Amino acid sequence: MTTQPFAQRRTYLIGKARPNAIVGKNRETGEIGIIVAGAALGMMCGLLIPVLPLRIAGLVGFPLLAFAAVFMPYRHRTFYRWFEINRSYRRTLRSGATYRSAAAEAGIGFDGREVEIGPPPGIGRLTWLSAPFGPDEIAVLLHLERRTATAVIEIEGPGVGLRDSEDQEALVDRFGTLLKHVANGDGFVTRIQMLARTLPADPDAHAKDVSQRGDVNSPAWLQTSYDQLQSMVSTSSEQHRAYLVACMHYNRELAAEAHTMARATGHTRDEGLAIVMARELNDICARLAEADIRVRQPLGQARLSSLLHSMYDPDHPIDHIQAMTQRNAWPAELDATDPTFLQAKTRESVTRAPWCHSTAWVKEWPMTPVGVNFLAPLLVHTPDVIRTVAVTMDLEPTEVAIERMLTEKTNDDAEASRAAKMNRVVDPRDIHHTSRVDQRGQDLASGAAGVNLVGYITVSSRSPEALARDKRTIRASAGKSYLKLEWCDREHHRAFVNTLPFATGIRR
User: Fold this and answer.
1) C-beta separation of 342 from 358 below 8 A
2) What are the TM regions of this chain, as residue ranges (predicted)?
């Protein structure tokens, strides 16, 4: 009698983001610059000031101030982190942190076209295009400041929680194959964003349908029995929508390809960019079909406008696309004066009270091995909270990722050797980080692509009190998912953009 070996489940170990600098460990270049500037000022005081007490104060004080600005905790961050945030927030308040759309007064031109209305602050200039995508059309957004082009398709959630372990592993492997194909292929898509939108559904929808379409002549005992069955069902109901955003960065090769497509089809160069994006999405959709992820529909201009509108006003149904145009995608009023949340209101809101939105970024991913469903508490097991979870993945070819991994491995080995020579105690977190680098190297050597990812979560509520309660709920759910969140106070109007289907929030 023989037994089959037990296959170990796939686990993930992502860890904390470690910034890279020219010198130093876990420090950004700006932080290193402040420390160097503080030391230089201290040395100049020691050399130029003749009075001994002032000389000692300058010699010691400036380096201490520099170290305190970089290392000393201050409201869960450091003074270095808060400086630019506070400066930008004060500048926003001076320039006016309220926005009011001019869509109602803009009118229509003599040629029948609507007058262009710009988006709210924080989004930047946009150009809306459309391209044929099978029997439908797809909207392509050109982000002029970021020099990117994005398009959105709606997909069905993979539903890994409804599958057994073998199917879950196979699904994850197929999605990894998709990322590897996009990163190492000769296409122009360099970034993918996954959006998980959770909205409340009408808990009385079934009862209303029964009252409208039910047979009033049915037996009384049957109606009583069905009413009892309905009363036993939970009244909490949610709808989950998933979207995939493809992003192309504008460069010389993409410009040449768009020019070629424009000449071949008789369109402008911008329309050629839209055609190239549609071609890239066709390839991605074929890979999604191989990964057992069904594409529901591409988002044209009306559907994309309706999605953007519903993110500012969750009362707006996502599928309500009548009279939805690009200038109706934005809210009627937006207020960013409050440092802890963003307020937005649309013209068709049910009440005069605006919606409150608060955004957090994933400061720390799982530091311990987790399974495939580690995000289930955040995505599924948090009822009655309106939220959007956005994960942006910046893809890079395998060779580039291997070079980055080798550089990080060399730095870690040099740091470990230096610590051993100085007889310092080895930090166990560094040991875990080294093991993660080794595992990443093995995955890259087997052909995996390099992925840099960042996550953002936006919570929406009707009032500041309800928003504070929902934020506590989301923080608890994130803890169950082994995530550590940090709310983007004083910059919510910019952080909110990272949960819109624009594939932003990560630096290249």
Assistant:
1) yes
2) 32-50
